[in-house]
Design brief:
The protein is of the alpha/beta class and 367 residues long. It is built from 14 helices and 12 strands. It has helices at 14-22, 51-58, 87-95, 121-152, 156-172, 185-192, 220-233, 242-248, 253-263, 269-280, 305-312, 314-318, 328-334, 337-342, and strands spanning 3-7, 40-45, 63-64, 67-72, 99-105, 202-207, 237-240, 283-289, 294-300, 320-327, 347-349, 359-365. The strands form 3 sheets. Strands 2-4-1-5-6-7 form a 6-stranded mixed β-sheet, sandwiched between helices. The chain has a 3-stranded mixed β-sheet with strand order 3-9-8. Strands 11-10-12 form a 3-stranded antiparallel β-sheet. The longest helix has 32 residues, at 121-152. The radius of gyration is 23 Å and the shape is flat. The chain starts with a strand and ends with a strand. The relative contact order is 0.13.
């Protein structure tokens, strides 16, 4: 299961958001820096409105959604790359996740201490960006020094890697993330071995107050976060109120909907955040549906039918024959699998077929 790490400066609402996402109280949330030290881990289901209609068509009451793992990581401070705060321990925890969700404080609260003494979301984003780049510069510099030494000793592989490392260092020295560096396949192989912090895709969660959630899109602070995310990092930001989400997590589903309606909000930010994180990780969903269950399965964008089959069971890939496939929209319009077949909407796909998000598949195999 792929992991998304929740990071940010201290006291921005990371642990509160983690608890809301996972519907647990694993992560301590307190008004002082570093109340989280060891990372907390929780599995989160991915909201998908397609599952309930699919279950009705299949005449099943069992629904199994897709899931990803979220990790709540201790707060970072300026100088972390040089060991400040939890320093290297914090950075190592980031190396162990597949994507980063950075929580940015966009709320005023005199009772919640801001580690920098003032509210400035863009400055906070720049602080973390700088620390991650500095840590990667140190990693890349050490790797280049080792490669140069090995190259002098006649190591051909080390000599071949030097060009990629020099290109990487030049890029990082401009303050840009490794993820945005164009690389050849050979250069990419060299850089991947470094497990760089800035090679992970990143998504921002703009944490707003309860009063600001309904009008978050018009908030100057949220707009500033979104502008910086798009122009500097080529990514997006989702507005969320960690405090509201923690309260919603305690309520039954109907009461939670009523509470959101009172706030003038149609959907909580957590659903949007989970879906955005899912796609940030390059994940897509296909479905299987029968009287037993309607189930969402997770694959990577670009995976072929046999790779998708392997997610269910390795035997499905080993003995793959074909994939009987219909798109979710076509199946929904037809009303049943039998009707979809009668209308010629069910396709027989082979080993080279790239599975599309929303495909409903029955795999045929023989082992």
């Amino acid at each position: 299961m792929l992991r998304a790490g929740i990071v940010g400066l201290p006291n921005v609402g990371k642990s509160t958001l983690f608890n809301a996402l996972t519907r647990t109280r694993k992560a301590p949330a307190a008004n002082y820096p570093f109340c989280t030290i060891e990372p907390n881990v929780g599995v989160v289901t991915v909201p998908d409105t397609r599952l309930a209609p699919l279950a009705r068509i299949s005449k099943t009451s069992t629904i199994v959604p897709a899931a990803i793992e979220f990790v709540d990581i201790a707060g970072l401070v300026r100088g972390a790359s040089q060991g400040e705060g939890l320093g290297n321990k914090f950075l190592q925890h980031i190396r162990e996740v597949d994507a980063i969700i950075e929580v940015v404080r966009c709320f005023e609260d005199k009772d919640v201490v801001h580690v920098s003494g003032k509210l400035d979301p863009v400055a906070d984003m720049e602080t973390i960006q700088t620390e991650l780049v500095l840590a990667d510069l140190e990693t890349a510099t050490r790797s280049k020094e080792k490669a140069e030494k090995a190259a002098r000793g006649g190591d051909a592989e080390a000599r071949a890697s030097l060009g990629a490392l020099e290109k990487l260092l030049e890029h990082l020295n401009t303050g840009r993330r490794a993820l945005t560096l164009p690389l050849t396949p050979e250069e990419g192989a060299v850089v991947r071995r470094l497990f760089l912090l800035t090679s992970r895709p990143i998504l921002f969660a703009a944490n707003v107050s309860e009063e600001s959630l309904a009008g978050a899109d018009a908030s100057p602070l949220v707009r500033a976060v979104r502008h910086y995310a798009e122009t500097h990092l080529g990514t997006e930001a989702v507005a969320v109120s960690a405090q509201i989400e923690s309260e919603l997590a305690e309520l039954p589903e109907e009461e939670a909907r009523d509470y959101l309606a009172q706030l003038g909000v149609s959907e909580s930010g957590v659903g949007n955040l989970i879906r955005a994180a899912y796609h940030l990780l390059g994940l897509r969903t296909f479905f299987t549906a029968s009287e037993k269950e309607a189930r969402a399965w997770t694959i990577h964008a670009g995976d072929t039918a046999p790779k998708a089959a392997a997610v269910i069971h390795s035997d499905f890939e080993r003995g793959f024959i074909k994939a009987e496939t219909v798109s979710y929209d076509d199946l929904l319009a037809a009303g049943s699998m039998a009707a979809a077949k009668e209308k010629g909407l069910v396709r027989q796909e082979g080993k080279d077929y790239v599975v599309a998000d929303g495909d409903v598949i029955l795999f045929r195999f023989n082992v």
